[in-house]
Structures are given as structure tokens and as C-alpha cells.
Amino acid sequence: MTRGIGPAAGDALGPELFAEADGVRLCYQSVGDPADPTILLIGGVGSSMDWWPADLCAAIAGPHGRHGRRVVRYDHRDTGRSTTCPRGEPDYTGRDVTEDALRVLDAVGARTAHLVGLSAGGAMAQELALEHPDRIASATLISTTRALSAPDDEDLPPSAPELAGLWDGPRPDPEDTAALVEAAVAEDRALTGRGPFDEARTRAMAARAVARSVDPAAGLNHFAAEPGEPFVGTLADVVVPTLVVHGTEDPLFPGHGPALAAAIPGARLLLLDGVGHQVPPPGSWDVLLPELVRHTA
């Protein structure tokens, strides 16, 4: 079931709609012709859809739908305007969060879709590709690492020393919206590392995410949720066409992109020069978009 609440203030993608299934409401937006193939954007842990910039969504769809793609972004539960639990009391598992992607696809009437997952969203895309290959036309895994075991499970490089303690220490007051925005900007700056960092753009996304959220601090529930029933299989069992996109300056998962691509049969690797652990910035779109259009053809 889908219900709309009208256009979101200051947003170019039109009305916010709700997928309602299994007792959960998931807020989403889309751009492009519903008759075109669907690309579903899956955000990182604790992230609302605001961290997929509207101009990137429109660029993937293409000017006037030129690329022939419908692009859908959504709020994970406990983010944005989706179902929100009390802080520290998630009533769901990690598997539930992963499978919410299928609930959104059902709501938009997409039997199959191309998944584009960022960071933890890339891990979710791996899991969905493993268990639901009939629903997944392709997977694009951005700034992520292995969510499933690989036949040759060698150790991967650790995160950069500069990230040590990033998530330690006290959190901002959940009622202090300005502090929440500043914390989000600081985290994004650290994860970008030596990649291009647009503070004004990041601040605008963070401010919108905080303003839209039922509870801006509830995203931390993702870390408190039990994992749920495990996904059974290895990366060698993934059969959907896969594109791995990784920044050469990613400080969280340095060098993990090539290892991930090597573990998935037939996967292609696209390295974004100078990019950190971040949503691909506008300066990389001339490289990213042609590859993404080709991959989702």
C-alpha cells in the first residue's frame, strides 16, 4: 500500500510516499517514468534518504528521463519519516532492515530492480542479491566491503588510523538539532578523508535529514538491533551482474573494493580517483554515470 503526504519542502523529487507492509511504514521518493527500469538507492547505516542528493537522483534518471531509469530513494526504518522506535529499543532485526528494500519495491510496483547500495547499503545489496536473485536485475556496490564470506577470506586492510575513536565518546543531545547537524558534518568530513569535501553541500543534507526525521537520534537503533536470521552463502554464490565502485582514498575500507570485486563472479570494478568513503561527489559523476547507465541497461 502506498500513501502520499505531499511535496517535501525544498526538494526537487516531488511527493513523499509511504510503503506500508508488515506493520512498517517506509517513506520514499522517486524521479523518472514508472514504466522505466527501477534503480533503488539503499543508504548507509542509520541514514535517511536525504544522504542521496536530489541532484544525483535526477542525474541518474537523466535530463528529461534521457537515461530511461526510474530512481527511488527511501528512509530506512528509524530514519527520516519511516517507522521509528524509541531510542535504544529497536523492535526489528538487521535482516528486517535489509528486506525493507523489497517492501519498497513492492510498493512502487517493481518486480525487479537495479540496486545501488552505499556503505552498509552495499552490504544489504549483497545479501539481497544472494537470497533474491529473481528480484535483483543488477547490484552496484559503492564504498563498501564484504558482507558475506568469500572463498578466499584473506584479511582486508584496517581503517585509517585517523578514524580511531570516531564513534567513541558522548553523542550530541538528541534535542539539540544544531549539534546533531554539526556532528553529522564532522563524521562525513572524517569519512571523506582526503577526498573532496563540500562542507556547504554536506551541511545542507545533514540539516534536511535532521529536520525531516521523526527522531533524528533514532538511527542509532540500527547498531542496537539483533542481526536476525543469517544470510546463507558466500560471495561466490552471487549471480546477479555486479559493479563495485570504490574511492581510492576511502579511509574506512581502504582497498576493500578490489577484493570485493574479485570475490564476486564476473563483477566489474570502477575506481573513483581521489574519492573517499562518501556518496560519489559531483566531480566524479562524469565517470560514474556512464558506467552506471551501462551497468543497468
Descriptive account of the structure:
InterPro entries: AB_hydrolase, AB_hydrolase_1, AB_hydrolase_fold. Pfam families: Abhydrolase_1 (PF00561). This is AB hydrolase-1 domain-containing protein. Residues 37-277 form the AB hydrolase-1 domain. By secondary structure, this protein is α/β, with parallel strands linked by helices. The protein has one domain: Alpha/Beta hydrolase fold, catalytic domain (Rossmann fold), CATH 3.40.50. The chain is 30% helix and 19% strand. It contains eight helices and nine strands. A nine-stranded mixed β-sheet has the order 1-2-3-5-4-6-7-8-9, sandwiched between helices. α1 links the parallel β4 (38-42) and β5. The model is unreliable at 1-10 (pLDDT under 50).
**Residue share in helices?**
25-40%
Number of helices: 8
CATH architectural type: 3-Layer(aba) Sandwich
Report how far apart the termini are: 29 Å
CATH superfamily, called what? Alpha/Beta hydrolase fold, catalytic domain
Number of domains: 1
State the name of the first-level CATH class. Alpha Beta
Approximate shape: globular
- Main-sheet strand order equals 1-2-3-5-4-6-7-8-9
CATH topology: Rossmann fold
* Structural class by helix and strand composition: alpha/beta
Order of helices and strands: EEEEHEHEHEHHHEHEH
The overall strand count is 9
Mind telling me the C-alpha Rg?
A: 18 Å
Report mean pLDDT, rounded to a whole number. Answer: 93
Residue runs with pLDDT of under 50 for 5 or more positions: 1-10
